[in-house]
Amino acid sequence: MTHPIGGASSWGPCGVDVASSLTTEVCPVDIGDPLVPVVGVGVFPVPVDGVEASFSSSECDPVARGPPMSFVTDLRDKMTSISLYGIVVDIFRQKDILGTVFILKLEDTTGAIIAKLHFVKSWSLGRVSIGHTIFMSGLSCSMTSRNVLEVSWLEKDTGTSLVNLSCLPALLNSSCLHKLSYLSDLTGPTNITHVCSVRIDHIEHYHIESGFSHSLCGHFASERPDGIPECSFCNCTCVGEVIRTFQLKLTLADERTKILSWCTGQTAAELLQISPDDFYDLPEDEQAMYMYTIENERFMAAIVSSKRQENNVDVENMNGDSDVVTWEIVRALKCE
Ligand SMILES: [Zn+2]
Ligand SMILES: [Zn+2]
């Protein structure tokens, strides 16, 4: 019994080199197996190094398939070479410290843990945000001075990886990698990445905004009074590292319901089917007309809850306004 995820050739035109970060071995677990933890991206065996071994089906032999993935509850002081799979609950740069360290709070089905990500120079993992499902390997466990267990991840170490599974192009174009949800399933008990077949219901013209994002992390870069761009996520200036981006709110619909969602970067450009530069080259009345032409276009969309769990702090927001939209479209693919 082998899950029909074959070699890299079957992945089709992903546009991103996922093959290098994915193995062709897949754990033969049944979709719907009650033993499979429903943490991350739909319900499926994630074909990423180490992850397959974790789905604790007796048919998986961790020894034959590389280091097993751990659950938060299994972690002990001084463990090394750990792999974890879970949802980003919080992420921010640690201040008042030498070097580039980010604090990532990760949650799986068994608990939550703080991971400290140490970078050689700057953040290098693309966009990772609240609600995204990630896989991390090469982690080491230690006790903090306050006697709390945490894990650390060092960019410079060989064998470490951090893959954002929610953003994998293959998630949307390989039907074996996801189970379709309805938009009405988003409010379910688990905060997984849902893949939905949707159409654009409506985009208000004033819900399209443009600004600059930091190319290394995909987060919004604001302009300081002296004109120098500054990344709110990396907490640093980023001259020469910004790209124009949309920040978009739009109403999605499927057979059952409608939701208001938001997106940015490449995902927003994919949904609008136009680059920010081309869009803002249009006269304003044509911009408004353009919005009508894309209504009812159909997409596959990977959607997460970007709402912070604790203290209800708003998600990052280009304007810092309080008009918070919970659902982030992390990836979209137009249906031909
Ligand atoms: Zn309108
Ligand atoms: Zn940044």
Automatic annotation (TrEMBL):
Entries under InterPro entries matching the protein: Cdc24_OB3, NA-bd_OB-fold
Matching SUPFAM superfamilies: Nucleic acid-binding proteins (SSF50249)
Annotated ranges, domain Cell division control protein 24 OB: 74-294
Pfam families the record matches: CDC24_OB3
Protein name: Cell division control protein 24 OB domain-containing protein
Source organism of this protein record: Kingdonia uniflora
